[in-house]
Amino acid sequence: MNLTITGRHVPITSAIREYVTKRFEKLDHFRTKLETARVILWVERQRQVCETVLAGKNLRLTAKESAPDLYAAVDLTVDKLVRQLRRVKEKTHEDRHKHRRGRSRVVEPEFLPAPPMAETTADPDEPVRIDLSSRFATKPMTPEEAAWQLAASKDEFLVFHDAAAGRTSVIYRKGDGRFGLIAPDFGSPRPRGGSARP
Predict the structure, then answer these.
(1) In the chain, how many domains are there?
(2) How far apart are CA 88 and CA 130, in angstroms?
(3) Which candidate, 33, 42, 61, 194, has a CA 20 to 30 Å from the CA of 153?
(4) What share of the chain is helix, strand, coil (3-state, %, to 5)?
């Protein structure tokens, strides 16, 4: 398993790296096809945070824990991943037994007519109303760190401050499992219909 340890405003000392590596060796005992483990450490509201994304063949697990002590946060995160891996192992074992007990039954799909399209009653002369549903505190990070943080959450997008580019950007999940990046360009607008006249 390829282990990557990143500190966000937290120095990764040799003692921390050795401790994280030793704790994550515990996950190899499950004999699952784990390929990569990305560990991100940072401080949030005077608490140490450990966030991890495990990836392998047909497997992706995430865990995030916080504690007053960084080593305790790592322990809690590894314990959560162990519980997740046990559930995956048990479910795989149950699925194999179900497959052996009975033959698979083919069910023909039932196609239903699509519901009629709802007619819009919006008046084009009325102003559009926008409700503020959420506020986002943008954190300075790289697009790669934003992708890892989004992968570790269940959100569909993440608003962050790209410190290198000096702008607020949005990273989002695409339908194919990859991520897309929206980086606004606040330069001068391009003229339509060719080059601008002097």
Answers:
(1) 2
(2) 42
(3) 33
(4) 30, 30, 40
CATH number for the domain spanning 155: value is 3.30.505.50
Find how far residue 86's CA is from the centre of its chain.
21
The residues, ordered by sequence, that sit 6+ positions from 21 with a Cβ below 8 Å of its Cβ are 3, 5
Q: Give the number of other Cβ atoms within 10 Å of residue 139's Cβ.
A: 16
Report the pLDDT averaged over residues 14-37. Answer: 86
CA atoms of 170 and 172, how far apart (whole Å): 7
Residue 176 lies in domain: 140-182
Q: In the chain, where does DSSP find H-type helix? A: 14-24, 70-101, 143-151
pTM: 0.50
Asked if 171 contacts 181 with a C-beta cutoff of 8 angstroms, the reply is yes
Q: How far, CA to CA in Å, does 70 sit from each of 7, 20, 123, 139, 160?
A: 11, 10, 56, 21, 24
**pLDDT tens-digit series, residues 137-171:** 666 788 887 887 777 777 788 888 887 788 888 88
Distance CA 67, CA 50 (A): 9
102, 118, 119, 152, 195 from 127: Cα distances, Å: 60, 21, 19, 38, 34
Crossing angle (nearest 10°) for helices 70-101 and 14-24 = 20
Task: Tell me the CA distances in angstroms from 78 to 23, 46, 75, one per residue in order.
Answer: 7, 21, 5
Two structure tokens written together for 108: 């023909």
